[in-house]
Amino acid sequence: MNSDKQQKKILVGLAGNPNSGKTTVFNALTGTRHHVANYPGVTVEKKEGRCRHQDAMVHVVDLPGTYSLTAYSTEELIARHFMFDEHPDVVVDILDASNLERHLYLATQLMEMQVPLILVFNMSDVAKSKGLEFDIKQMEILLGVRIVPMVASKKKGVHELLDVILEVAGQKSKTLKVHYGAEIEEELTKIEALLGRSNETFHAKYPIRWVAIKLLEADTEVSGWVQNVAVQRQVSASREHLNTIFGDRADILIADRRYGFISGACQETIKDTVQIRHDVSDKIDAVLTNRHLGLPIFGMLMYLVFYLTFKVGQYPMHGLEYFFGYLSAQICHVWPQGTMPALQSLIVDGVIGGVGGVVVFLPTILILFLGIAFLEDTGYMARAAFVMDRIMHKIGLHGKSFIPMLIGFGCSVPAIMATRILENRRNRLATMMVIPLMSCGARIAIYALFVQAFFPKSLQGPMMMLIYVIGILLAIVCIQLLRKTLLKGETVPFVMELPPYRMPTAKGLLIHMWTRGWMYLQKAGTVILVISIILWAAISYPKPTAGELAGLSRHEQQSITLQHSVAGCVGRAMEPVIKPLGFDWKIGTALIGASVAKEVFVSQLSIIYSLGDTADETEALQQHLRADYTPLQGFCVMLFCLSTAPCVATVAITRKESGTWKWAAFQYLGLTLLAYIITLAVYQAGMFLAHVF
Q: How confident is the model over 175-189, as a mean pLDDT?
């Protein structure tokens, strides 16, 4: 028989809410081998006991019952000081299984502390009598912790708990971190970066992310530790920013996100429940995440967003069209006849025509982003991801992949960066590869131009939605191909957070809308301006001789000039390749510039048709398009722009996030080939049907 000195010694901290059955578990583990005293300097009772199991002596400390681990009470401070000062080999969190969501809140805070954790689902018999059934294995995978069902009052599960304690003791914590949403995570990253560069003495003792969270929560004790002025200023700025965006204190927002994490885990792992849940968010979720209603509701909401985008956006868009047309006309009117015509053409056709042709779509883009921001800030988009989870699992991804894909409707660059929330590299790469198939804000200008040019108002909303749906369907097909070939492997499950519904603040919505719109506008003032000038030069030079233009109409002169130009020569050289798609050299020329930035496509068409001095530039451009192309060709242009290679910025961020040029090149070439094949098939099928009927 081993002596105590030869035995392995394990220190266990027993945590849990009041009335969770923690004391019953403590007594079941230690029997009569325990003693009671007070913690030094306070009247809070300290209970310790021990028991032998296999080759180990298990020393159990029954921590004060708490609902959380903030610094609001002596009991909470004692519990969290024990975690960091005593370094327990295992922390066992006792939960009332019949009231799981409330009791898991403490568990999320223990996860943040990165302690080796075991969850005990006590009172499992009571939960079962309420009709609750738990998918324990799935919850263990989602939370990254071991879970032991118990009925401590009947000493059921005691030996199983001791077995797991010996198994987990001393292991590095594998619990998953709670993701607090893009806004909060961004502020946490800023604080963590400054903490990492500071010389604060508590770094070695406390996890840096935990410290950052506590600083955002305005935890009194942790705030007192920080002496670095830069950290203090950043924390203050972060709290103020979050309050401005959401209209609530950071600690309330963080608590909401923790409950969202819990709610998501319970939604996925509590089966066949007849539990009546009274929370307002849960009542709404019963409809919005319903297996049968969830997807149709999501479809209707997205259709409403697109409908309002066109219905409301057309008025300010026409106003901007008039402004740029008027500006060009005035410049032409006051410009001295015959004086520096090249400079006049550069300003009117190159700068105003190019940049103005893109900026006029800004109201449409802002309204779309406002609609998406509203759905995100209310908490609905998290539900949309949950609804999509069932579909995503079938194609080999987790529902959380839907979140970066959704961000891709704004811009592919932040969307690819958002794949960092996916811990599995195969899932991350598969999601990254297909994000460009989500129609980014830059493509809206192209869609809006062609939809309004070729389709009646009653069909503009449905056509816009159709092109978005095609992108999603293509992404699904591509993901399945990738997961069955280059990226084989099991999908790793993790929690889908369901934050409580909130009424967004007007200021928060406007900030989110403008942040994304400003990215679009910045491109118009930088990248698009430069490309427009380059394209203007490529279209304007070299010029044909005066004899070649003599006796021709203005439109015929423009056509001859374009044919002689650098852009015209390049466009004509590639015309045989793109002609089977229904494209001519003009479309081909515009596609070249669009490979740098998608918005450039519209500005290039404006320059090609020399519309800079036209009063209503967009309407004039649409008239030219209707004269030169059919609705089938217009649809094929949209389809090609949807599925072709992403812009240069997206290629660069793919290389950075994937860690290699191989995946960036694969994405660029693969999507280019996909766009060609899809567009070729649609155009040729359309021509065949038109010929037959």
A: 85
Given a cut of 50, whether residue 368 has pLDDT beyond it is yes
Residue 599 CA to residue 527 CA, distance in Å, equals: 10
- Secondary structure E strands in 550-634: none
CA distances from 271 to 246, 291, 693 (A): 33, 14, 54
Instruction: Quote the number of domains for the chain.
Output: 3
Statement to judge: residues 17 and 115 lie in one domain: yes
d(CA 444, CA 23) in angstroms, rounded, equals 61
At residue 312, the pLDDT reads: 83
Distance, in Å, from the CA atom of 120 to the CA atom of 93, rounded to the nearest integer, reads 6
Query: Could you give the CA distance from residue 358 to residue 301 in angstroms, rounded to a whole number?
Result: 27
Domain extent at residue 472: 299-692
Pair 307, 261 in one domain: no
User: Pick from 134, 234, 154, 225: which is nearest to 190 by CA?
Assistant: 234
Among the residues of 395-493, which ranges form H helices?
402-407, 412-417, 425-434, 441-454, 457-484
Q: What is the CATH number of the domain that holds 253?
A: 1.10.287.1770
The CATH code of the domain that includes 103 is 3.40.50.300
Same-domain pairing of 425 and 389 = yes
Q: Using one digit for the tens of pLDDT, what is the confidence trace for 275-303?
A: 444 456 677 877 887 878 888 888 888 78
Residues 488 and 348 in one domain: yes
Number of Cβ atoms within 10 Å of the Cβ of 108: 22
